[in-house]
Each structure stands twice: as C-alpha cells, then as structure tokens.
Write a structure and sequence with these properties.
Low-confidence stretches: 1-5, 350-355
Strand content: 25-35%
Helix content: 25-40%
Shape: globular
Number of helices: 10
Largest sheet: 6 strands, mixed
CATH architecture of the domain at 181-314: 2-Layer Sandwich
Order of helices and strands: EEEEEHEEHEEHEHEEEHHHEHEEHH
Structural class: alpha/beta
Number of strands: 16
Mean pLDDT: 90
Distance between the termini: 12 Å
Length: 355
C-alpha cells in the first residue's frame, strides 16, 4: 500500500465529493499547481463502498479535466470498516525476521482472511532489552483487497495510474505536519469530519498514539434538516452549507445544526474517553478539525465548550504557496479544510515514512 511515485496527485474519494490537490516542491515547502472538488451524486458511495463506479469515474474525469491537472500518478486513501489499523507488541527482532514473521503475527489481529488483505507495517519503537523493554511496537495496517480494487479501478478508468493507497487518518497527519510546528510531548487530536465517516488521529509530537474511524458525519446534519423541514436532499444539503433559499434561512436551521453537533461531540467524547482509558496519556492539548463539515456554523465553538480545550479549523495550505491558484481567497478559506486529506496525499515523496 505504501509504495510511492515521484509526482503524485492527492485524490480524496469521499462519499459526497472527490477532491484533488497537485503540488510542486518549492524549497522546503510546496506550491499549489492544481486543486478542486467535484460533487458526487447521492449514494454513489455508501459506507465506503463504491456503488456507482461510473458516476465516481465521471466525477474524477471532470475534476482532472476542469482543473487541467496533468500528472498521471495518483495517491488515494481509504477509511472505514475495510481498514484495520493496530499497534501490536512483538519480541525484539531484526528487520529481516520481522518481514518473515509479520504475516503470521498479523493473522492474530486481522478479522479477515490474511489472503484477502493488503498488509503493511511500520516499526514505531524498536524496544531496548538493555533498558528492560523487551518488546517492539509495530503499526500494522491491513486493507481488504476488493476495496482497494474498487478505488483503484475508478482511477484506472479515467486513464490515471493508482500509484499509492494510504489511510485517511494518516494522510490527515501528513497535512498537519507540513503546516504546523511539531512540539515533542504535545498531544493533539486531528478530527476529519467527512460526509459519512469521521477520522480521528491523536498525535504525541509526530507519533500517532491513537486512531479510530467513527460512523458519523455530515450526512447526519443533512438528514436532520430534511426530516425537520420536510426538504429534499439537495435543498437540505445547500442549507447545511450556509446557502439560504427563498423558503428557509440559515438562521432557521441553527438549532438543528447545534443538536447534531451535540451528537457528534458525544461520539468524540466516547472516543476520547477510550483513548484516556487505554493509553498513559490523559490530556489532549489541542483539537484540530478538518473535512467538509468542520465549517458547520459554531461547531468549533461547541467543541471548545464541550471539551475545554483549544479548537482550531485546520488549514492544510497554511504553509503552502497558493498564489498561483486561480481561485478567490474566500473560496479557499471556505473549502480548504475539506482538502486536508488530498493535501496529505499530495505531499508524499519517495523515501518518506508511511505515516
């Protein structure tokens, strides 16, 4: 999964839209050479499964052609129940011994037939028998082959090469590390709120110490607006994005948004409680939210009140030069958080670590 290509377009295939970012190295940072989003018809992707491959492929084609993105090699990512990420402890061994034994070790932790998954791993802590730590910590990632095939298939249909498949939560981490200072010992929670899945990645310094996908996202906001105002999907979705209509104002849906945001906060609370119960780290210093729903009205304020910590909407272009992009600053401010995963995929380079 973590093989690389030299020049990659980061392509985030979400359940409500496809998003692409093309970057060019510029000194120690990057500059944007192309990016954009293209909506998907409802139910094209359900629970991470591609239902209408033709519709997804058409959206990708329109996105690349409309933004004149020329790079052929594509990095994509996955999340949800077809992705298994676990930190496991193993006896200290050499790299060669680990490579030989990892599939046997993985069988104990993967709830799928090992022949049905693509497997990758990274050593997090090699251990030190001399100091009393006789085990090594390994990050194990397994993704079902059929899910990878579905996603790489729609990329291939539009004449692009699927050069790399990553995991949403780790792509989010890449975007964060490119744009924000890393402080050893500082614990931050990265929360990417998509249409149907919310990815959580908690970091201590530059190391992932906890991760989880939550089956909750922007669709819950749209569904609540539909039910309470008796609207169609498109009308409700537009209101959620802050677009008033002749019949309904944005102010009218604020109580609905607040109620759903409370539900999201409860799901995050459960995740943070589990994190606190299963790790030696109790305190999260800061929360960064990204994804299309991170800009739901007052969401950052509600989360700050709920968790008593600083909450910031992530800007994945904070340290990236966007002056060459032909979009308004207002569009970028509004849409940048939804491009975080795509940015995290686009910054991948040969020789980097997988996460």
């Amino acid at each position: 999964m973590f093989r690389r290509a030299k020049a990659l377009v980061g392509l985030d295939i979400g359940s409500s839209a496809v998003k692409a970012v093309e970057l060019k190295a510029s000194g120690k940072s990057y500059k944007v050479t192309g990016f954009g989003t293209e909506p998907l018809p409802p139910d094209s992707i359900v629970d991470g499964a591609i239902i209408d491959g033709a519709a997804v492929a058409d959206a990708i084609r329109r996105l690349f052609e409309g933004r004149n993105i020329k790079t052929r090699d594509v990095a994509a990512s996955l999340s949800g129940n077809a992705v298994i990420v676990k930190k496991i402890s193993l006896p200290i061994m050499s790299d060669a011994e680990l490579a030989e034994s990892i599939y046997w070790e993985a069988e104990q932790y993967i709830p799928f037939d090992i022949q049905d998954v693509n497997l990758d791993y990274q050593i997090l802590d090699r251990g030190d028998a001399a100091s009393g730590k006789g085990t090594m910590d390994v990050l194990l990632v397994a993704v079902k082959k059929d899910k990878i095939g579905d996603y790489t298939g729609v990329i291939t249909q539009v004449g692009k090469t699927p050069a790399l498949v990553d995991v949403d939560a780790f792509a989010l981490q890449n975007a964060y590390e490119v744009n924000y200072p890393i402080e050893p010992g500082r614990v931050v929670a990265l929360v990417n709120i998509g249409a149907s899945v919310t990815n959580v990645n908690i970091l201590s310094g530059s190391s992932t110490i906890f991760w989880r996908d939550i089956s909750f996202g922007g669709n819950q906001y749209t569904d609540a607006i539909q039910k309470q105002l008796s609207l169609g999907f498109e009308q409700a979705d537009a209101l959620k994005r802050g677009e008033a209509s002749a019949d309904h104002s944005v102010a009218e849906i604020l109580p609905i948004l607040r109620s759903v945001s409370d539900d999201l906060a409860q799901e995050l609370q459960k995740t943070f409680d589990f994190f606190g119960a299963t790790t030696s780290t109790e305190k999260i210093d800061r929360l960064f939210i990204a994804g299309g729903c991170s800009r739901i009205v007052n969401l950052d304020r509600q989360l700050k009140e709920r968790f008593g910590m600083a909450v910031e909407i992530m800007n994945p272009f904070r340290q990236i030069d966007t002056t060459a992009s032909a979009v308004s600053p207002e569009w970028l401010t509004e849409n940048a958080p939804s491009l975080a995963v795509a940015v995290g995929l686009a910054v991948r380079h040969i020789g980097d670590e997988a996460t």
